[in-house]
Amino acid sequence: MADSALSATRGRVPCTIITGFLGAGKTTLIRNLLEQTGGSRLAIVVNEFGDVGIDGEILRSCGVENCPQDNIVELANGCICCTVADDFAPALDRILALEPKVDHILIETSGLALPKPLVQAFQWPAIRGRVTVDGVIAVVDGPALAEGRVAADPAALETQRAADASIDHDDPVEEVFEDQIACADLVIVSKTDLLGEADRARVEETLRPHLPPAVRIVAGVNGKVDAAVALGLGLGVEDDIENRRTHHDDEADHEHDEFDSFVVELPAVARPEDLARRISAAVEAENILRLKGFAHVEGKPLRLLVQAAGPRVDHYFDRPWSADETPRTRLVVIGLKGIDRAAIERILAA
Ligand SMILES: Nc1nc2c(ncn2[C@@H]2O[C@H](COP(=O)(O)OP(=O)(O)OP(=O)(O)O)[C@@H](O)[C@H]2O)c(=O)[nH]1
Q1: Which residues contact 213 (CB under 8 A, 6 or more apart)?
Q2: Tell me, which fold does domain 259-349 have in CATH?
Q3: Could you tell me if the CB of 47 is within 6 A of ligand 1?
Q4: Which of 32, 286, 248 is nearest to 139 (CA)?
Q5: pTM for the whole structure
Q6: What ipTM was reported for this prediction?
């Protein structure tokens, strides 16, 4: 990675905004970028819809020297697009006051956040002179798109779009997904290891009509994308953001009330596989968009990180429970409003 590309532009610190629907692979990408940018001092703002900060924990456990714990600011419990003034601006102040000074800031939005209001905040006088948006990266979950989980029937959507580029959908998942890619300067299709050749090509064909020709689409398996491709774009996106049409453009205020999130507390589990099986069953039975958390496994001094994005469940022990923590199992569940909490709790506890 050319670290010079990360140096401040005209005295302003470049910020890369990483957007993408729930579970697309944003945190995985950031972990990878951190490992490649050893010569630069980084800071991260990580935002989550649910009220338990998991991504911040994951990133802190990377223990990367050029991005120490103090440089990772977590904004949980809401979407950054709605809390720009209250949460994001003060977080930026804290980061810009850090010593040594940071060279580049990575901002991971929640999977339900709309990037446009966040980029617009970079036009505010108090922010404008100090930072600039280097680029907006949208991470797209390849299998989710191929399976119609983030945009119903990609082929039909494409035909619809070709007929009317400003078409509005009532599906909140599709709207969030489309607003995220509408703001992108670079699209990273994740999880292509889970796709065949034909599906990969189809995903790219589906995305292309949504994007201006200059926007590249690159594949990234497990977040492995060359930092020189993703960072140092130098685009000053805040000056162009009004040109990017999104579904929420005409809303003075938008809500995320189509979505719901809650935390499920469970007793210690006997084996990770048992919990993974119950999570799979819950995802299959109910319309869960994302589930993630930490679990206490009986007799284990290690914390189990467990997460599901769509039908796939991943789990691994990420670190020992620390002396000041009580080992426990807490899972954040995100779904559409009206998701059947009682049914999910029953399946997870079974
Ligand atoms: N097979 C495969 N799994 C991946 C890849 N990238 C990410 N994942 C897995 O997908 C899940 C979600 O990844 P994250 O990086 O946490 O996604 P995210 O976008 O940060 O999730 P939210 O912040 O909850 O929206 C995790 O279980 C990852 O291990 C990939 O390229 N291939």
Answers
A1: none
A2: Hypothetical Protein Yjia; Chain: A;domain 2 (3.30.1220)
A3: no
A4: 32
A5: 0.92
A6: 0.99
